[in-house]
Structures are given as structure tokens and as C-alpha cells.
Amino acid sequence: MASALQDGFGRTIDYLRMSVTDRCDFRCVYCMAEQMTFLPRQQVLTLEELYRLAALFVGQGVRKIRLTGGEPLVRQGIVGLCRRIAALPGLRELVLTSNGSQLERLARPLAEAGVKRLNVSLDSLDPARFRAITRTGELAQVLAGIEAAQQAGFERIKLNTVVMKGRNADEVLDLVGFAVERGLDISFIEEMPLGEVGRSRDEAFCSSDEVRALIERGYALLDSAEQSGGPARYVRLRDHGQTRIGFISPHSHNFCATCNRVRLTAEGRLLLCLGHEHSLDLRGLLRRHPIEGGPVLEAIGKALLRKPQRHEFALHGEVQVLRFMNASGG
Ligand code: SAM
Ligand code: SF4
Questions:
Q1: Pick from 8, 106, 110, 277: most CB atoms within 10 A?
Q2: For residue 324, which atom of ligand 2 is closest to its CA?
Q3: Could you tell me the CATH number of the domain that includes residue 246?
Q4: Overall number of domains in the chain
Q5: Which residues of this UniProt protein bind S-adenosyl-L-methionine (predicted)?
Q6: Does residue 185 lie in a domain region?
Q7: What are residue 287's phi and psi, to 5 degrees?
């Protein structure tokens, strides 16, 4: 069945990203401020509400769900939630994005629960730099988590790297080498201006074209038309067929025309576009209509007609979206 969810520009919505918590054990410099206030627990959707929404969206034709956060693996009960969502009839794949800190313990239970693919963030291979970027993270723990994920039998594992000049841009080739050695994919992401993080984003900005040029110093690249249902553009390495390299380029290659997704924030706001504040309060609707799905679905259908045509991210000037990435279902 094709998805019944359409926006006002004729785009079909068949991909939902759900933030299961705004909390995190890291404080990455591009994602959070050093001092963060997290949502009171009663404002966060319960596991039951998350499941109910997943079921409603899948019933409307959503085929892919990504669980994210915050750090999804610090949410109590995450494995059970994955098991229930993965079993929804009609869902093609349940995938998850993690910082890797809890994977040593949770990789196998997640794979057994039906999570098909995993994205793991990895911004540096140097422990001191890794600590500086994540503010609290332990590189060795994340590397052990990646190793455990490889043993656990996911269909694919992809690394995500936000590239910043002066912090990790000089590690791009080493990170590609790390992915190649292990048969992993890797995506390089341009930093997005979400939330006020205490510095101007343009200082460290490194475009995907610059990243590509850095990789070409070490590897011959082959363009690829592959799609993973997300915003990345892919290339392959001529001499290492297994690894795909992705570029997520919100600034330099706008990807809005083919947008197929919406995001659910941890407090149950349906975000129609990462780059705008347009949203629908699903938590209120769910709590007012604890049994029947009709009113919730009707409101979702109407809200989709307000989905903006594109984001308007700019590198300079005022922060346009005050929401931090951890609160956005990034
Ligand atoms: N905690 C998990 C993690 O770090 O993978 C999942 C949530 S995190 C918000 C999802 C992805 O968003 C990560 O790959 C992270 O690097 C990326 N991210 C966070 N803030 C960003 C920003 N301002 N610009 C671009 N990517 C960002
Ligand atoms: Fe946490 Fe992920 Fe944000 Fe880093 S990017 S602070 S790991 S939510």
C-alpha cells in the first residue's frame, strides 16, 4: 500500500523519525549547550504513547521508522519498545541512531528485537578530541559499542560524522579508513544551525564538497545513484566496494524537494520540517483521545498540508530555529 500521507506539495510521507527522549549522556558541541535543562518526565511521551503513534503512522502507510533522541539508548524500556514497533504489520524497517555509548550492552538485544540498521555517531578517533567534541564521551566505550554492533548481526551499520574545521576536518581520511577496514558505511554531515550553542556556526563550517576533496586525496570515488530513503547523496570507493560514503549537505545541496519524512519530538510535537517551527501537539491529542485514533489521524492529515516547502538554513546571522537538535528527532 502506498502511504496515505501526502503534504501540500504532493510529497508522500512514508518515513517517521521519533525522538524517544531529549536526554543524553553526551553534550556534543554542535548539538547542545554545556548546561542543558531537559524536559520534566511527565512532558515526555510514555512508551505506550510512542507505540500508539508508531502504530497509527504505520497504519497510514509509513514504511520506515527511525528511533533517535537525545540518546535513544538511555531511555528505560527501549528494547521492548523496539520489539513492539518492529512487529507492526506493514513496517518495512525499524532503524536507530545512537552515540554508541550503550551499545556494548544493548547491540545484541536491539538486533534481536528487530532493529535492522544502526547509525552510530563518531566524530573523532582521538580520545582527547572525542572528549572535547562530546564534552563527556569516552571514545573507547563507543569503539567497543561499534564492535559489539558488528558482532550482533545488523543488516548495515553507518557511522555519522559532523565535520568541523579546527576540530575534526583533518581526520576525514582516517575516519574513512576506519570505516573501510570494518566494512561500515560513513556519512559526513554539514553542521546545521539548530539552537544557540555559544559560538557562530560558520567558523567551523566545512562543506560536503570540501570533505569530498579531502577524501579524494586518499581514495578514487565513484558517484552512485543509491538512495537510503534519507537526505544523503552517496559515493562508492573504487577499490573498496563494501563501503558507501554519504554526504548530508543541508547548506550546499538542498534536499527538500524529495523530503519524505516528518519528525516527532520527545514531548510529542510532530515537526513538519527540521528548519521551521511548524508543528502539531500530538501529546495533547493522544491524551484527550486515549482510545480512538480517528481524531489524531485527522489532525495529522491536516497538519501535513502545512509542511513547508523547504528549510531556510543560513550560516550567518541570527539563529533561526531555537530548538536544539536533541529536541528535534535529529
Ligand atoms: N544521540 C544520537 C547520536 O548522536 O547519534 C542520536 C541523536 S543525534 C541528535 C542524531 C544525529 O544528529 C547525530 O549524528 C549528530 O551528529 C547529528 N547532529 C546533532 N546536532 C547537529 C547539528 N547541529 N548539525 C548537524 N548534525 C547534528
Ligand atoms: Fe547527544 Fe547525539 Fe546530541 Fe551528541 S549528537 S549531544 S550524542 S543527542
A1: 110
A2: 3
A3: 3.20.20.70
A4: 1
A5: 30, 70, 121, 192
A6: yes
A7: -75, -30
